[in-house]
Amino acid sequence: MSQTKVKSGLVEDNSIGASKLDVAGNGTEGQALLSDGDGTFSWQTISTSYNTQVISTNTNAVKNTLYVLTAELTLTLPASPENGDSIKISNLSGVATCVLGANGNNIMATSGDLTLDDATKSFELIYTDATNGWVIIG
Questions:
Q1: 11 in any annotated domain
Q2: Structural domain of 21
Q3: With CB atoms counted within 10 Å of each terminal CB, which end of the chain scores lower, N or C?
Q4: CA distance 92 to 90
Q5: DSSP 1-25
Q6: What is the pLDDT of residues 19-66, one digit of tens each?
Q7: Phi, psi at residue 17, to the nearest 5°?
Q8: More confident residue, 132 or 44
Q9: Contact by Cβ (8 Å): 67, 124
Q10: Does residue 18 sit in the same domain as residue 41?
């Protein structure tokens, strides 16, 4: 049995490769090693790009999308979000009455819709879990 090299309490650079983690291959550019939740790992592509939609009417939101609000409206959040789903919002409507429809999920650990009280605010929503629901970042 081989031993992992340790230097000053840290694992030495490049001493643990994918084979020691029981992962096929080395992944490709833009991929990260993620837990599959069962003690195994796999290479998965990490997306950092967002679709962008400029909207002026009521809309059903889709994860990983940036919504630019240009009128008084309701943006209804997804009904079945998963942990880590993200939606970005930029309120350029000039009104402080746009609504985020909770669609049965919590927003900031509170049930019910959220009325935006800033006519020019931009922020991101990340879905965390059933208790906290969508949390506001930024």
A1: yes
A2: 6-45
A3: N
A4: 6
A5: -----EETTEEPTT-S-GGGGT-SS
A6: 566 667 777 776 777 767 676 777 777 666 789 999 999 999 999 999
A7: -105, 180
A8: 132
A9: no
A10: yes
